[in-house]
Amino acid sequence: MRSARSGGSSVPARWQSRARSGWSRPILALLALTLLVGSAACGSDGGAASSGQTGHTTASLANLDPVPIGPEPTPVLPARVRSFDGAEVTVNGVDRIIAADRFGTLAQTVWALGLGSKLVGRSTAAAFPAVQQLPNVTGGSGSLNVESVLALRPSVFLTDTTSAAPAVREQLRAAGVTVVYFDPQRTMDGVIPQIEAVAGALGVPAAGQALAQRTRDEIATASATVPKQDPPLDIAFIYLRSTAITMLAGPGSGADSLIAAIGARDAGTAAGLKEPYTTITSEAMISAAPDVLLVMSDGLSSVGGVDGLQKIPGIAQTPAGRNKRVVDMADAVLLSFGPNTGRVIATLSEAVYGTGHA
Asked: Which residues contact 337 (CB under 8 A, 6 or more apart)?
């Protein structure tokens, strides 16, 4: 549970000692009212005010496309790697790459490594402008369409063990597709290992090391500029896909890691949630009591914007709801934890705190 932020509203003793004097009563009443208003201002809704922001803000990257680390590298093949599913995989060609996962991270990484021209397929989540015209091999739920994958004749298919269910893996194996599986979890700690793993699978380890170092430096620079808050803001990530799917994030969602990176506290985790995502109830939202609501831009649009968000059970009863303190960011980057991570931290911090440093 959150610590109380409100202060007391008691009247100083020197004014109490004059209470019998008729002339002091109006002054005493005025002082008491002033203290009460001041207490309310730094009370349960004070966290959002302390961020320097109220109302709705969009955290916008100037360019959603990952920046290539350099000219297109020449892969050293064959590349022999251990896939996340435990299999030893030999990659003999990277002329036709499909990169598909729930967050768009793998396609972002391929592009940032300088191999964007080799991409022939993507997932729904890989929605940055440079790849939007590529064929999509996943459905709206992010599930893989094996027929779509096979139709593109990939030389290598990069995905994760969550996007590809066991039955799908068997189909791909039977069809002879070279598949490299990656860790499906997205966290701050996983950003650099994921970049290096993708680079290794594509036979460009030197480009991977360079991209990893650049990303590491950008994250460090962005993190150093995040303003310190005492107490930290409570931020809740809300996953929205129309009013039929409204989820409050908790431990292991990935959002908790990003929220920590901007010096805040994940409200769902602090409220005692045990799962990465829990269906929103009034009780859960009121217990989480977030100062700020963090959402994906498309998700916010799917419920009718901030006004629609206010109608979700419990939202209006939270400090964030009362202040309409909502920050949205593009679905393509918010939880991708890829080569844009440093820029995401800087931009999100600016939107939450109003620091203007990104």
From this structure: 103, 105, 186, 187, 188, 190, 191, 194, 254, 257, 258
Q: What residue has token string 């699978």?
A: 201
- Kindly state whether residues 59 and 111 are assigned to the same domain: no
| pLDDT tens column, 287-296 | 999 999 999 9
Contact 123, 163 (CB under 8 A): yes
Distance set, CA 43 to CA 6, 8, 88 (Å): 4, 10, 57
CATH number, domain with residue 287:
3.40.50.1980
Confidence (pTM): 0.84
- Three-state secondary structure call for residue 89: strand
Whether the CA torsion 164, 152, 92, 200 is positive or negative: it is negative
| 3-class secondary structure, 283 | helix
**What Cα–Cα distance (Å) separates residue 178 from each residue in 108, 154, 156, 341?**
20, 8, 5, 29
* CB count in 10 Å sphere of residue 338: 29
Structural domain contains residue 3: no
Decide if 160 contacts 182 (C-beta within 8 A). Answer: yes
Q: Which residues contact 52 (CB under 8 A, 6 or more apart)?
A: 353, 354, 355
* 295 and 260 share one domain: yes
Q: What is the pLDDT of residues 46-105, one digit of tens each?
A: 444 445 567 999 999 999 999 999 999 999 999 999 999 999 999 999 999 999 999 999
Phi/psi for 234 (5° steps) reads -95, 120
Domain count, the chain: 2
